[in-house]
Structure formats: structure tokens, C-alpha cells
Task: inverse folding
């Protein structure tokens, strides 16, 4: 590795899909760039989340980069929904193919990033005490990367092995013959529970909020289908980019209650049999009208009732929040797993956890003795990864303080008071988590690369979102979220899973194509809403 105390044009924090593409593009601008990555390899989410069953819920033919036609043509996915090891292989393939690893410093955690107004440079400090400076700071830290361990009394006292789905041991875990407990029933748990249940002596699922899940119908990718898509790959992706979430699927305009019950059932059934997140696109008002949403809720509750044999267990598995307002899951045998004799559902709404003890988990009615305990308890989403770094902007103001009452950004990429800092596809106010992540990443990276090229041409050195533009954007983000059912539910989208976090619906739900057009419009008006200044001094 090059010497410490080095200076770069840009520093990138994170070497997941966002960091990798940012590195590729910024090098293409002729910049000197260093990326820092806490892990020992590339892949971000797919490097860390190695729990059994980890898999992407966007189909593999869409969950990949588009910036290189050769890359798109030469890579072949094996399954309809790619599993974590294959996605990680893809990330490594990209990093090797574009020779990115030489500019990534692995095993290096960034603990602080401070902006110096006099020099116009950011100084980042690593956990090991090294310091590096750069003109631009690119936070490619991910939207769901800051692990959430809930503050359950006695958490440290369990004598058996403890795991978190998002920090899974690289060598895997063998649960054969073990009594295993899992806390949480979100996407990570829904994917891992069926596989862990097959291996463990007994699996106890500690469920606080039941989950809506639809079957993925995952299968090997049909080579003919792959070739058909690849024969017009650009066209395929361009068509999907016009859809609300940049994920393929049909999004109906039909109002739910404008059709009769038999027709609704037919529509829901067809989508249930197909297996896609766009199940939620069955009707135009499913996520805006509670009565409409209720029909979708009831449909899935009926399915749970059909699948799960023990009526009490089925009842306990039935959610009652608005479907879609917590991330919809897609699964392989999730509800069916509760028919296994070695699986026990512990309904924490009836018997909450009192504490974790040496032997296992004690709920209000009994002790569950365990050999292993898994936390599938999610993340401090969107703001967590940024707030865990001591980021200070103009006048030494901490990002944490600037966002104390709730995060504010302009377009989700920049925030006032933090010049030359960009967030990639994970910032509050960006469509990232509600869209197909990799195209969202490419769009953001392309946007900021164009900004930097624009600045270089004009010998400018400083760019900052204006307070005014930021306020207008935040208002717009809130306005488009307000008519939806999302703010009504406690979810990580609104920060409700983290005690004390301001309750704000963070993602932009105005639609991916609308967002892209807005960015194009801003760019065409000389980056309206950003203040550009300074002379381009040598770094
Ligand atoms: O985390 P989650 P996740 N006591 O926050 C429970 C993406 N992802 O890792 O709902 C008891 O969804 C919590 O209960 P509650 C995807 O965007 C994608 O599963 O707060 N339980 C909940 O059940 C997803 O949405 C993929 O009441 C506690 C669970 O822990 C996001 O990552 C795969 C608790 C956390 O669920 C996060 O998913 C995996 C406590 N004290 C993840 N604290 C795919 O692509 C928390 N919980 C398929």
C-alpha cells in the first residue's frame, strides 16, 4: 500500500457496488483515488451478509451493472434470483476485470472525516490512526450496512455462540444437533430460517412483528431466456428504467375496489404464482389506500392459513400492518417451515423477551435453552453508516448534529454545510432503497462524475448544496411520501427500529424515472441548487 498521509483527488469510503463503480469512473476522469474498505474484500452487503439463504430479491438479469456492454454480455447468472456467493463472485469479477483492487485499502475502517475550509480538503482518519486528504469525499457506505444489535437486557451474557445475519462467519456455521434461536423475522430471517431449520436440532423463532412474504419461485436461469435478454440488453434495461422502481414487473393503474372479489383474487393469485416484489403493483392504489391495502393483507393472511397446519401458529404468523409498508419479503418455503416438528414460533407480542441469560432467552413465560443465538435484527438504515463516522463539515459541525432532527439532503447525494461530500444511492432523500440498487448507484455515480468534470473544466474546487434547494427537496420528499401508507407503519424506512432515531420516511418515493429527470434538469441548469466556487488548486 502507498504511504500514509497521502493526498488524493477523491477518497471513497466503501468497496461495495457503489464504491467499485465510483472508483472506476473517477479513475476514468484522470483522478487519483483511494477507496477504503473495512472488510478484507470487495462486495459490501454481499461480502458481509453470508447467512444461509442470502439472496437478492431483484432478478439476477437486472441486478448488475450496465456501464460496460462487454461485462453485461460475458457474465452469466445461474439462477433467477442470484444467491450471495454468486453475487460476491460477480463483484470480484468486476473488481478484477477493471483492475480496481490496487486502489482499495482493505481491512481499514474510517473513523472520522473532517473538512478544512482553508485548504478545501477533507481529512479522513482510519481506526489505525492513518490520515489521508482529498478534495472530494465519496461516501459509498451503503444504506443497510450499520448492524443493529437491539439493547435486550443481558445480551452479552449468553454462553453459547452468538451471530448477526449481517456479520456472518466466512467459514459458515454448522447447526447440526444444535438448539438454535433466531430473533427477528425480516428479510434476512425469512431467507435463513428455512435452511437453518433443516440443519438444527430445534429452531426457536422469536417473532415480534409477523412478516408478509410471497414465494420467490426461484429456479435455474433458462439459457434461452438469458440469450433473449442479452440480444437487446440495453433495450431491456432501458425499458425497466422507465418503471417506478427500476425493477421489472407490471404496475397496474386499476383501483383495487373497482373490481369484484373474484377478479382481485385472480390478479393476486397470478402474481403469487409468478413470484416478484411487483406483487405490490397488482393495483394502482395498494400502497396509498388502506381499504385497498386491506384486501392484499387479507389475501396473504389467507395464504398463511392455507399453508400453516397449526391454526394457532398460522394466527401468530399473520401480520396486520399495511402490506408493503415494511419491506415485502420473497421467500423459499418460509411459512411452510413452521409445519416442521423441530420449529417453534415464539410470539413475542404475547410473551415478550424479558432478558437474555447464560442458557438462552427468557420470555415472560419461560426459558428457551439454546446452543446458538442469531440476531436477524437488521440495520440502522440509511443514516447509520454515515453517523457512525465522525463527519464534520463547515465550521466543524458534525453531520450527526446537522441531522439531529432528521436527515436533510439535496437529491440524496449532498447535504448543505458539507462541501464536496457525496453520498451514493444510500442517502436519505434518494430513491436507492426503493429502487434497483445497482442502476441507482450507477445513476448517482454518473451524476457526481459529471459534476466533477464540470468543475474541472471551469477550474472550480468547491460544491455545496444550498440550504434553500435542500429545504425544497426535503419538502418534496415528504410531500410524495405523505399520501402513501408508508409513514403509518413502524419500519426501518422511518427509523422506527432504532430507539431515539427521528421518525422520518427517508427514501424518495416519487419514482425512479422522475428522480432521474430531476437530476438531468439540475445538471442542465448548471447544477441548480448547488453553490459552486473556488479555484482549482493542486491537491
Ligand atoms: O432486518 P429488518 P433484515 N426484539 O429490519 C426484529 C434488505 N435485505 O436484516 O419488525 C425482537 O427487516 C424486527 O422486529 P420489528 C431489505 O431491504 C434484503 O431482515 O422491529 N425482535 C424484525 O423482525 C430488508 O428490509 C434482502 O418488530 C426485534 C427484524 O428484527 C433490510 O435489508 C435480504 C428486536 C429485523 O428485520 C433489512 O432486513 C436481507 C427486538 N429487540 C435484507 N429488534 C433481499 O434482497 C429488531 N427485531 C432478499
Result:
Amino acid at each position: 500500500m502507498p504511504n500514509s498521509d497521502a493526498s488524493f483527488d477523491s477518497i471513497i469510503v466503501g468497496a461495495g457496488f457503489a464504491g467499485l463503480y465510483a472508483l472506476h469512473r473517477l479513475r476514468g476522469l484522470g483522478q487519483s483515488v483511494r477507496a477504503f474498505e473495512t472488510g478484507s474484500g470487495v462486495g459490501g452487503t454481499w461480502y458481509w451478509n453470508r447467512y444461509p439463504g442470502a439472496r437478492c430479491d431483484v432478478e439476477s438479469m437486472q441486478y448488475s451493472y450496465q456501464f460496460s456492454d462487454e461485462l453485461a454480455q460475458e457474465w452469466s447468472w445461474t439462477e433467477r434470483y442470484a444467491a450471495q456467493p454468486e453475487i460476491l463472485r460477480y463483484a470480484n469479477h468486476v473488481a478484477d476485470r477493471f483492475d480496481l483492487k490496487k486502489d482499495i485499502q482493505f481491512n481499514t475502517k474510517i473513523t472520522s472525516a473532517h473538512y478544512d475550509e482553508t485548504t478545501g480538503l477533507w481529512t479522513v482518519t482510519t481506526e489505525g490512526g492513518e490520515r489521508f486528504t482529498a478534495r472530494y469525499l465519496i461516501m459509498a457506505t451503503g444504506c443497510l450496512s450499520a448492524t443493529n444489535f437491539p439493547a435486550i437486557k443481558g445480551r452479552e451474557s449468553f454462553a453459547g455462540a452468538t451471530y448477526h445475519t449481517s456479520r456472518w462467519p466466512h467459514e459458515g456455521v454448522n447447526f447440526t444437533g444444535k438448539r438454535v434461536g433466531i430473533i427477528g423475522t425480516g428479510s434476512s430471517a425469512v431467507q435463513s430460517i428455512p435452511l437453518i431449520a433443516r440443519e438444527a436440532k430445534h429452531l426457536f423463532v422469536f417473532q415480534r412483528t409477523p412478516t408478509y412474504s410471497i414465494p420467490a419461485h426461484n429456479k435455474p436461469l433458462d439459457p434461452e431466456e438469458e440469450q433473449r435478454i442479452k440480444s437487446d440488453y440495453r433495450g431491456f434495461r432501458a425499458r425497466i428504467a422507465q418503471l417506478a422502481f427500476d425493477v421489472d414487473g407490471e404496475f397496474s393503474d386499476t383501483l383495487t375496489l373497482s373490481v369484484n372479489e373474484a377478479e382481485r383474487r385472480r390478479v393476486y393469485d397470478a402474481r403469487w404464482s409468478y413470484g416478484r416484489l411487483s406483487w405490490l403493483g397488482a393495483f394502482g392504489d395498494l400502497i396509498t389506500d388502506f381499504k385497498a391495502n386491506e384486501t392484499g393483507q387479507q389475501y396473504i393472511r389467507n395464504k398463511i392459513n392455507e399453508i400453516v397446519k397449526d391454526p394457532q401458529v398460522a394466527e401468530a404468523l399473520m401480520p396486520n400492518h399495511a402490506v408493503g409498508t415494511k419491506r415485502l419479503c420473497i421467500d423459499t418455503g418460509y411459512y411452510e417451515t413452521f409445519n416442521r416438528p423441530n420449529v417453534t414460533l415464539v410470539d413475542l407480542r404475547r410473551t415478550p423477551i424479558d432478558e437474555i441469560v447464560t442458557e438462552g432467552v427468557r420470555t415472560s413465560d419461560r426459558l428457551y435453552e439454546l446452543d446458538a443465538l442469531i440476531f436477524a435484527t437488521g440495520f440502522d438504515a440509511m443514516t447509520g453508516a454515515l453517523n457512525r463516522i465522525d463527519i464534520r463539515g463547515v465550521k466543524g459541525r458534525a453531520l450527526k448534529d446537522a441531522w439531529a432532527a432528521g436527515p436533510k439532503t439535496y437529491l440524496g447525494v449532498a447535504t448543505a454545510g458539507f462541501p464536496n461530500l457525496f453520498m451514493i444511492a444510500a442517502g436519505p432523500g434518494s430513491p436507492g432503497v426503493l429502487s434497483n440498487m445497482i442502476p441507482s448507484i450507477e445513476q448517482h455515480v454518473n451524476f457526481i462524475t459529471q459534476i466533477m468534470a464540470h468543475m474541472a473544466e471551469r477550474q472550480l474546487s468547491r460544491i455545496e448544496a444550498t440550504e434553500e434547494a435542500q429545504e425544497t427537496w426535503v419538502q418534496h420528499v415528504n410531500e410524495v411520501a405523505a399520501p402513501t401508507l408508508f409513514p403509518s407503519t413502524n419500519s426501518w424506512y422511518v427509523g422506527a427500529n432504532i430507539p431515539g432515531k427521528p421518525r422520518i420516511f427517508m427514501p424518495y418515493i416519487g419514482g425512479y424515472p422522475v428522480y432521474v429527470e430531476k437530476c438531468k434538469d439540475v445538471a442542465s441548469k448548471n447544477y441548480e441548487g448547488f453553490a459552486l466556487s473556488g479555484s482549482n488548486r493542486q491537491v
Notes: Residues 55-57, 144, 150, 152, 165, 183-189, 191, 206, 208-209, 327, 348, 376-379, 492, 497 surround 3-acetylpyridine adenine dinucleotide (CB under 6 Å).
